[in-house]
Amino acid sequence: MNRERIISPSILAADFNILGEQIQEVKRSGAKYLHIDVMDGMFVPSISFGMPVISSIRKQTDLFFDVHLMIMEPIRYVEEFARIGADMVTFHLEAARGLVDETIERIHKAGCRAGISIKPATPAEELLPWLEKVEMILIMTVEPGFGGQKYIPFSTEKIRQTRQLLTAHGLDTDIEVDGGITADNIGVVTEAGANVIVAGSSVFGGNIAENVRRLLGQHQ
User: Would you say the pTM of this structure is higher than 0.90?
Assistant: First the structure.
């Protein structure tokens, strides 16, 4: 199936001095999502930004807010992220052990789409109980927590396995990939079955419009 390629620029790599301008530019360039990484310094070593930043930028754009919670016990904050403007709330399987069903249910009840993410070391098969309950699966293609890392090559097979699992269950769920995606390897991950592409420095490093068009496969 020929799926639409969606670019989700990660604002972790943006220039926060001119964040609003850069968000407008990625939208003009053809990006449909905005990837917002929320890190708590516990599930991952880094701390990023939280609710005030998201609430502030929500007022200025109608881009789809793709909020990626890299936090322990994500169920605690679902309603708050929904309230400040998240459209999709993605949480980590590894951070919600024992409360995965409840977390998905709470995301849906709050009016958002639900995504579930797995780290590089977590096998795709661990997603099986929840394949039919979420709108997106996020395959981390680097260790979560830091921007600018190189794509882990064995991720390609994991993306392929996840797409095969979905197909076997009659599902066409979005697969998002996050980490080390560039114009040089985006074809590899889309061929394997991913269709939502997170890109940080590959978008915000240099000419944003050219970078987004390149990732979308559009000729200059």
Answer: yes
